[in-house]
Design a protein that fits this description.
Elements: E1 10-14, E2 21-25, E3 32-33, E4 40-43, E5 50-51, E6 54-59
Antiparallel strand pairs: 1-2, 1-6, 3-4, 4-5
């Protein structure tokens, strides 16, 4: 039996404005805002989200 790999991941992103680090979903369906300064970190595109912040790490 084969195991299926997930195509979506969680990503650790740093906000460009306040340098806050936050974990977000790579295929978010709604805009993701920074919890500290409310700057947009990711925008939905119908598939993988457009990441606006700085990607620090991709988590499995």
């Amino acid at each position: 039996m084969k195991t299926q790999e997930l195509k979506s991941k969680f990503i650790k992103v740093r906000c460009e404005k306040c340098k806050n680090e936050q974990i977000i979903f790579s295929k978010s369906a709604t805009p993701v805002k920074c919890l500290v300064c409310s700057e947009i970190l990711a925008e939905p595109t119908g598939g993988a989200a457009k990441i606006i912040g700085h990607i620090l790490e991709v988590l499995s």
